[in-house]
Write a structure and sequence with these properties.
30% helix; alpha+beta; Trna Endonuclease, Chain: A, domain 1; 4 helices; single chain; elongated
Length: 152
């Protein structure tokens, strides 16, 4: 995961993510997506295809242009984080990749479109899940195993 904010920001209540459904609903209700259609662009959802973005906006023939849009929503206003695949795709596509940060999804949604978001100075957040056990537990288990074998 990549984030532009400090790590402790994720503990604040204002950083609660909106659900994808809320964020997409908010985005579709905002003028930015309507503007895409007014300009003659077609918006298609590809979020189930794991492509590193949620929407493709295409300008049909003769231009054959396309932009890729990742939608991130927050219930209020808060930190936005990209998954590794999203960040790498943004870095690769540069100006053809847009981040639609949707704030206040729970009230009056506001879409903040950012072209080429990879340039914003994201920092990777690495979380490693592990289940530690102390040395005493290991040594005790080893002693118990030795005693068990001696009894056999």
């Amino acid at each position: 995961m990549w984030s532009t904010a400090r790590a402790d920001a994720s503990r604040r209540p204002d950083t609660q993510p909106a659900t994808k459904k809320e964020a997409h609903w908010a985005t579709s209700r905002c003028s930015r997506q309507r503007d895409e259609k007014v300009r003659g662009w077609r918006v298609e959802s590809v979020e189930d295809q794991i492509r590193g973005f949620d929407l493709i906006s295409r300008k049909p023939y003769p231009e054959d242009l396309q932009t890729c849009i990742e939608v991130k929503g927050r219930a209020t206003v808060g930190e936005i984080a990209l998954m590794s695949n999203e960040y790498k795709t943004a870095a690769r596509l540069k100006k053809d990749y847009w981040l639609y940060a949707v704030f206040n999804c729970a009230a009056t949604p506001e879409v903040h479109p950012i072209q080429d978001p990879a340039r914003l100075g994201w920092q990777p957040i690495v979380t490693i899940e592990h289940d530690p056990v102390g040395a005493e537990v290991i040594l005790t288990a080893e002693d118990a195993e030795k005693r068990r074998k001696m009894k056999q």
